[in-house]
Inverse folding.
Protein backbone atom coordinates (compact mmCIF):
# COMPACT_ATOMS: atom_id res chain seq x y z
CA UNK A 1 0.00 0.00 0.00
CA UNK A 2 1.17 3.49 -0.80
CA UNK A 3 -0.83 5.63 1.53
CA UNK A 4 -1.15 9.29 0.76
CA UNK A 5 -0.09 8.82 -2.81
CA UNK A 6 -2.19 9.94 -5.71
CA UNK A 7 -1.44 8.89 -9.23
CA UNK A 8 -2.71 9.25 -12.73
CA UNK A 9 -5.12 6.44 -13.42
CA UNK A 10 -5.78 6.74 -17.11
CA UNK A 11 -5.83 8.94 -20.11
CA UNK A 12 -8.57 9.67 -22.51
CA UNK A 13 -8.69 11.70 -25.69
CA UNK A 14 -7.53 15.21 -26.34
CA UNK A 15 -9.84 18.15 -26.37
CA UNK A 16 -9.79 21.90 -26.55
CA UNK A 17 -10.55 23.44 -23.21
CA UNK A 18 -11.62 27.02 -22.81
CA UNK A 19 -9.41 28.66 -20.21
CA UNK A 20 -9.98 32.15 -18.92
CA UNK A 21 -6.79 34.16 -18.54
CA UNK A 22 -6.42 35.16 -14.87
CA UNK A 23 -4.55 38.32 -15.88
CA UNK A 24 -6.76 39.91 -18.52
CA UNK A 25 -9.93 37.73 -18.55
CA UNK A 26 -9.44 36.78 -22.19
CA UNK A 27 -10.81 33.35 -23.13
CA UNK A 28 -8.24 31.05 -24.74
CA UNK A 29 -8.38 27.55 -26.12
CA UNK A 30 -5.86 25.14 -24.63
CA UNK A 31 -5.22 21.60 -25.89
CA UNK A 32 -5.58 19.21 -23.00
CA UNK A 33 -5.83 15.54 -22.16
CA UNK A 34 -8.58 14.52 -19.81
CA UNK A 35 -7.12 12.32 -17.11
CA UNK A 36 -8.23 10.80 -13.85
CA UNK A 37 -6.29 11.11 -10.62
CA UNK A 38 -6.72 8.34 -8.11
CA UNK A 39 -7.24 9.95 -4.76
CA UNK A 40 -6.49 7.94 -1.64
CA UNK A 41 -9.24 7.89 0.95
CA UNK A 42 -9.34 6.92 4.59
CA UNK A 43 -11.33 3.84 3.61
CA UNK A 44 -8.91 1.68 1.67
CA UNK A 45 -11.62 -0.13 -0.27
CA UNK A 46 -13.05 3.08 -1.67
CA UNK A 47 -11.35 4.55 -4.71
CA UNK A 48 -12.06 8.08 -5.74
CA UNK A 49 -11.18 9.17 -9.25
CA UNK A 50 -10.93 12.87 -9.80
CA UNK A 51 -11.17 14.06 -13.41
CA UNK A 52 -8.64 16.73 -14.37
CA UNK A 53 -7.17 18.27 -17.49
CA UNK A 54 -3.47 18.09 -18.33
CA UNK A 55 -2.30 20.74 -20.82
CA UNK A 56 -0.31 19.23 -23.70
CA UNK A 57 2.06 22.15 -23.90
CA UNK A 58 2.80 25.52 -22.39
CA UNK A 59 0.05 27.88 -23.50
CA UNK A 60 0.18 31.63 -23.54
CA UNK A 61 -2.71 34.03 -23.50
CA UNK A 62 -3.40 35.30 -27.01
CA UNK A 63 -4.05 38.77 -25.68
CA UNK A 64 -1.48 39.48 -22.94
CA UNK A 65 0.98 36.62 -23.77
CA UNK A 66 1.28 35.50 -20.16
CA UNK A 67 1.49 31.76 -19.47
CA UNK A 68 -1.94 30.45 -18.55
CA UNK A 69 -1.39 26.68 -18.73
CA UNK A 70 1.51 24.25 -18.63
CA UNK A 71 1.83 20.45 -18.54
CA UNK A 72 3.22 20.44 -15.00
CA UNK A 73 0.08 22.09 -13.66
CA UNK A 74 -3.12 20.13 -13.95
CA UNK A 75 -6.37 21.98 -14.38
CA UNK A 76 -9.12 20.93 -12.07
CA UNK A 77 -12.49 20.49 -13.69
CA UNK A 78 -14.89 22.88 -12.10
CA UNK A 79 -18.51 22.06 -11.90
CA UNK A 80 -20.74 24.97 -12.61
CA UNK A 81 -24.00 25.60 -10.90
ZN1 LIG B 1 -4.36 37.40 -20.82
Amino acid sequence: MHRGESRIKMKTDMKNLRVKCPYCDHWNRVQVNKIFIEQPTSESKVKVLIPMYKPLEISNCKKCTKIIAKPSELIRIERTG
